[in-house]
């Protein structure tokens, strides 16, 4: 992997982590509302799980495998 590829992955990782935090805040706010929209809540949680999977994939790409 080149340095440019790694920088791009790190940039995408930072963006996805920020989106994940934003979704977390949105989910918390929706839970606090008097009548939460359950469908919207379900969609936000699903998107958050997708982001978590993508974040884990990118972190695996950035972190080199160390064979002991």
Explain what you see.
The chain is mainly α. It has one domain. The chain is built from two helices and no strands. The protein starts with a helix and ends in a 6-residue tail after the last helix. The relative contact order is 0.16.
Give keywords.
elongated; 68 residues
The major sheet is characterized as: none
Q: Give me the count of strands.
A: 0
What percentage of the residues does DSSP assign to strands (E)?
under 5%
What is the total domain count? 1
Elements, N to C (H/E): HH
Backbone structural class: mainly alpha
N-to-C terminal Cα separation, in Å? 21 Å
Radius of gyration: 16 Å
Shape: elongated
Which parts are unreliable, with pLDDT below 50 for 5 consecutive residues or more?
A: none
Helix content: over 70%
Mean pLDDT: 93
Number of helices: 2
Brief characterization of the structure:
The protein is built from 2 helices and no strands. It has 68 residues and is mostly helical.
């Amino acid at each position: 992997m080149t340095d440019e590829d790694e920088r791009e992955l790190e940039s995408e990782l930072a963006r996805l982590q920020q989106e994940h935090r934003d979704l977390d805040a949105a989910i918390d706010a929706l839970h606090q509302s008097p009548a939460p929209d359950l469908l919207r809540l379900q969609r936000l949680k699903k998107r958050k799980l997708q982001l978590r999977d993508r974040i884990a994939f990118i972190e695996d790409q950035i972190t080199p495998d160390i064979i002991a």
